[in-house]
Amino acid sequence: MNGEQNKKIKEVEEMLLDVGTLLMSNGASTGRVRTTVNRIAVALGYEAELLITSRSLMLTVTEENGSDYTSSVRRTPPHGVNFKLVSGISRMSWRVIEDKLTVEQINQDILRLTSLAHFPRIVVLSLVALAGASFCRLFGGDALEMSVTFVATFFGLFIRQEAIRKRFNPYVAIAFASFTASMIAGLSVRLGIGAVRETALATSVLFLIPGVPFINSLTDLLDGNTLNGIVRGVNGFIIAFAIALGLLFAMKIYGI
Amino acid sequence: MSIDLLTIPEKGIWFGFAALGFAVLFNVPSRTLIIIWLIAAAGGMAKLVLMLYGIDIVMATFAGATLIGILSVSAAHNKHAPPLVFSIPAVIPMVPGVFAYRMMLGLIKLSAAKIGDDSTQILSETASNGLKTLFILMALAVGVAIPMLITRKESIKKIRHKSDNQQVSDN
User: Do residues B69 and B110 lie in contact, with contact meaning Cβ atoms separated by under 8 Å?
Assistant: First the structure.
C-alpha cells in the first residue's frame, strides 16, 4: 500500500465522517445519513460501510477495486436542529455525482455550509413567540390569552438559549425554559387578568415539544433502524418529562 | 373547540404561523419558509374540515398529516431540500398540546387521591385525554412518514440521474 493512496483514502474517510456526523447531529434520520454518505462515497469511487448510533459513527471505506481500506470511529456531537445544513449537504451530495466535485471542493462546501448564518436571534424569538400565540388561538384562546402566550414563549425561549449558551444539560435547559414560560403564563391566570384560562398556560410550553426526535424516531423505526428509533423516542420522552417538570413546579408555586 | 366552516380559513392562518415559528427555530433555508406556511395551513385546514364532517380527531389528524407528507415530498423536488425540512415544521401545529396538559393534570390528581376516594371520573378523563394524546401523536408521525417512505425508493432525482447514465451509455 503506497503512502500517496493511503493519504487519499484517509482524506475521503475524514470527509465522509464529517458529512455523517453533521447530518446526524443536525436532525437527519438514520436512513438519510446512510444514503448520503454512500452516495458521496460511490461517486468518488469508494465503498462505505457504516455503523450509525445516536452518539457515534463508525465507518469503513474500501477502494472499489478492493486493495485499500481504512476504518475509523467518531463521536457525534450533541447539537441542535439545523435544517439549512441538512438540506445543504443533501444538495451537495447530488452535485458530487452531477458536477464531479473533488474531495477538496466537498470540504470547502462543508466549511461554507457550517458557517452559514442562522436567523437573527430577535427574529427567532419573535417568530417562535408568534407560533406560541398561534397555538393558543388554535386551542380556542382569545386575543388576551394570545398575548400572554406570546410573552411567555418569548422569555421561555430566551432562557433556553441562555441556558444552552452557559452549557447546562440540554434537558435542564428545557426544564428552565418550561418553568419560565409557565411562571409568566401562570401569573396572569393567578391574578385573573381578563378571562385568562388554562389555555394560555398549556400552550405557553408548546414551543419546547420534541417534534424532531419523535418524527425521526418513527421514521427510523419504520425504516428498520430499530435501535436508533428507540433511542430517539426515549430522548423525546425525557424532553417531554422535562417540560412537564418545569410546568409542574410553576403550577405548585401558584397553587393552580 | 367549536368549529364552523367560517372560522376554518382563519385557523389555517394560525396553523401557518405556528409552523413558521418552528421552521425558524429549526433554521430551515429561507427559500422554503413560504411553502412551509402554505403546507401547514393546508394540512391544518384539511384536518378541521374532516372534523367538521364528523370524522374523529385521530383519523382527521392522520389525513391532515398524510396531506402534509405528500405536499412535502413534491415541494422537496421543486425547492431542492429534503422532505423533512417541510414536513416536520408543518405537522407540529397539530400536536395535541391541551390534551397532553389535561392528561398531566389528571395524573397529578390521581397520584394525590387516597384509596377509597371515588376517582372514577378523573380516571376515565385522564385515560381519555392520554389515549387521545398518544394516538394523535402516532397519527401525526405515521401520516407524515408514510409518503416519505413510499417515495424514498425512487426519487425523481435518482430517476433522472439513471436516465442520464443510460443516455451516455447509449451514445
Answer: no
pLDDT of residue B168: 41
**Measured between beta carbons, which residues in chain A are less than 8 angstroms from residue B145?**
215, 218-219, 222
Q: What is the pLDDT of residues A195-252, one digit of tens each?
A: 667 788 888 999 998 888 888 888 888 888 999 999 999 999 899 889 999 998 998 8
Residue B162 inside a domain? The answer is: no
Asked whether B70 and B42 are in contact (CB, 8 A), the reply is: no
Give A119's contacts (C-beta < 8 A, 6+ positions apart).
A127, B24, B27
Instruction: Give the count of domains, chain B.
Output: 1
Domain assignment of residue B112, yes or no: no
d(CA A181, CA B57): 28
Q: Which residue, among A219, A220, A223, A225, would best test binding to B if mutated, counting the most B CBs under 10 Å from its CB?
A: A219
Q: B17 is in which domain, residue-wise?
A: 7-94+138-156
Residue B136 has pLDDT above 50, yes or no: yes
Min Cα separation A117/chain B (Å): 9
Mean pLDDT across the stretch B60-89? 91
Q: Are A207 and B21 in contact (CB under 8 A)?
A: yes
- SS3 category, A169: coil
What b-and-e string marks burial along B111-130, b requiring 16 or more CB atoms within 10 Å of the CB? Answer: eeeeeeeebeebeebbeebb
**Selected residues 135-154 of chain A with any CB under 8 Å from a CB in chain B:** 135, 137-140
**Averaged confidence pLDDT in chain A:** 89
Closest chain A C-alpha to B115 CA, distance in angstroms: 23
Query: Which of A87, A222, A223 is opposite residue B85, by nearest beta carbon?
Result: A87
- Distance CA(B51)–CA(A118), nearest Å, equals 38
Residue B50 resides in a domain: yes
Does a structural domain hold residue B109? no
Q: Based on the number of CB atoms within 10 Å of its own CB, is A168 exposed (0-12), middle (13-18) or buried (19 or more)? A: middle
What are the chain B neighbours of A131 within 8 Å (beta carbons)? 17-22, 25, 93
Check B11 against A87: CB less than 8 A apart. Answer: no
The pLDDT tens digits of the residues spanning A54-99 come to 889 999 999 877 778 889 999 988 778 899 999 999 889 988 988 8
Distance of alpha carbon A27 from alpha carbon A24, whole angstroms: 6
Those residues whose C-beta lies under 8 Å from the C-beta of residue B39, and which sit 6 or more positions away, are B19, B68, B71, B72, B75, B86, B87, B90
pLDDT computed for residue A149 by the predictor: 92
